[in-house]
Design a protein that fits this description.
single chain; alpha+beta; Alpha-Beta Plaits; D-Maltodextrin-Binding Protein, domain 2; 5-stranded mixed beta sheet; 12 strands; ACT-like_dom_sf; Arogenate dehydratase; phenylalanine biosynthesis; arogenate dehydratase activity
């Protein structure tokens, strides 16, 4: 499924601080109303991330039906139950099946059995960092134009022996497109300006950081 890019955009938009994270194993079930069989299905609904995480398994199950995005997994299960949709299944948790009185047609349908989802905990005030235990820090930055500038930025971590655990790029909404003339072809090329989200293993109280 990969990253949920909207969350990165929201982090930049609001003045909040990441103060912790939790990781949960990804475990999806295929849910339908009691009595509904796989051959009765015409579509599967769920959150886009859940649909992506189960894409191959659904195909191997022979469910070559329409797959439609929904706001969230539990909401998809509720939608099927409340509207008595007997041609629609949802991808959600076993707990959602209990709550909405649905049957589990297939359990553990995620493509990657070792996949986890990371949730970050946000607060208005930052946590005062320490150096007595491992910390992870998340930052976002943009850099000036120029050859090898991103390499120079990232090399600052390597020179200080700081391990990067994640790097993600997103287009800058304030400067979405940069136009550059192509001297050879006489045409203009369009480029995005990017910002970078980086996670690294160090506290801001660490002298290396």
């Amino acid at each position: 499924g990969g990253s949920i890019h909207r969350n990165y955009d929201l982090l930049l938009r609001h003045s909040l601080h990441i103060v912790g994270e939790v990781q949960f194993p990804v475990h999806h079930c295929l849910l339908a109303l009691p009595g509904v069989k796989p051959e009765n299905l015409r579509r599967v609904i769920s959150h886009p991330q859940a649909l992506a995480q189960c894409e191959n398994t659904l195909t191997l199950m022979g469910l070559n039906v329409a797959r439609e995005a929904f706001d969230d997994t539990a909401g998809a299960a509720e939608f099927v139950a409340v509207n008595n949709l007997r041609d629609t299944a949802s991808i959600a948790s076993a707990r959602a099946a209990e709550i909405y009185g649905m049957n589990i047609l297939a359990d553990g349908i995620q493509d990657d059995v070792g996949n986890v989802t990371r949730f970050v905990m946000l607060a208005r005030e930052p946590v005062i960092p320490r150096t007595d235990r491992p910390f992870k820090t998340s930052i976002v930055f943009a850099h000036e134009e120029g050859t090898g500038v991103l390499f120079k930025v990232l090399s600052a971590f390597a020179f200080r022996n700081i391990n990067l655990t994640k790097i993600e790029s997103r287009p800058q909404r304030s400067k979405p497109v940069r136009v550059v003339d192509d001297l050879n072809g006489g045409t203009a090329k369009h480029f995005f300006e990017y910002i970078f989200y980086v996670d690294f293993e160090a506290s801001m109280a660490d002298p290396r950081a």
